[in-house]
Amino acid sequence: GIRLAPKEKLEIPVLFMPAEMKIYKAVVVIHVMRENGENWPYEVTGESNKDLNRNVIVAENGETQGILWIYPINGTPEAPQQKSVVIRCQARQRLEQRVELLLIGVMPGATDLPDAGNSATLDTEESSSTPEVTGGSSATLEFLYEVQYQSDEIRYQLESLVGMELVEKEWDTESRIVTLIFNVVFAPSKPMRSEATLIIQCTAGGLWKFPLVFIATEPEVDDVINIEAVGLNKESIVGFKLTSQTR
């Protein structure tokens, strides 16, 4: 019973309040009819566009009585903000660390978890595309994960210094907590502090975001240069070489 004038806009509020970490789907259907109750003279024939045929209500005389707009809605629950994971390494060193992340409220699949490494890939670029799932079964509980950076500058700075790989999964069916164990490699070349976000999505539904903080501390002293004075008010010179690691 909502009346709309020509060119008028209609806002339809949609509230999403998930109770569990699973995929929710709904459909919003908008049905429009002419205010005077008359039909549109346009007749839908068998040669008309198939999408149009599905979205119109045809009267007995073949004229268009109503028009439908159908909007599918997919709801993905997102877990509350997780604690930051801090990866700390001295500059010009290489750190390899195992990181355990807890996913609370995972909905169980039809079968147990697949073997580690065959159901998730890492996309070190920003989330412009969906990570590809390799192996596993559609009935298997699988996870997708990717690293998102706050800016292209941070991505350019970190993507060659950081590596992440999912190596193990543990599933507690009673508490519905999944533990994902990642092997993280961090090899900074200079002191820095950068942030990123590890986004994990379960194919059964649910999204978890873990802030990552990469800290590279000051490197060890390369060498000590001793300069001996040859006398008062006289210069002493010592030479040493510096090699650039890049062009």
Automatic annotation (TrEMBL):
Gene Ontology BP annotations: sperm axoneme assembly
GO cellular component: cilium
Xref: Pfam families: Ig_CFAP47
CFAP47-like immunoglobulin-like domain boundaries: 78-217
Top-rank lineage group of the source organism: Eukaryota
Coiled-coil positions: none
Bias kind Polar residues: ranges: 118-136
Region (Disordered): 114-136
InterPro entries according to UniProt: Ig_CFAP47
PANTHER family hit by this protein: CILIA- AND FLAGELLA-ASSOCIATED PROTEIN 47 (PTHR45912:SF3)
Protein name from the UniProt record: CFA47 protein
